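BACKBONE GEOMETRY TOKENS
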Amino acid sequence: MLIRGGCHCGALRFTLEWPGEPATIMARACGCSFCVKHGGVWTSCPQGVLRVSVPPHAALEGYAFGTRTAQFHVCSRCGVVPLVTSRIEGTLYAVVNVNSFEDFARQRLTVAPASFDGEGQGERLARRQRNWIADVRFGAG
């Protein structure tokens, strides 16, 4: 299944190749203050392939907080946060915000609350290595 998404103004675009054709996609509604304020509802497929397109003129900002082990990619034009990345042991991992999906049947989503309070940095990075998309590439759009 191919999922397309991006920010509101179209400066940041992505495609996510999700193996097979799952009936439902699980998503996590993170309860941290940043995700609550930005509508962050995240999904990932460890076997997926994520291609991110950012044109040279795009104004993309990175934002990191807390443990500073993840980079929230924020479009500085429209303010949408379509994805988060984390570089772990030389590999770039990512999750995508289901609220930035385009032409996607939202009834296919199963959203559950998520809290990572109390999780240590080592546990957090290990969870990302297991669950996040590991084939991530950025290119000019």
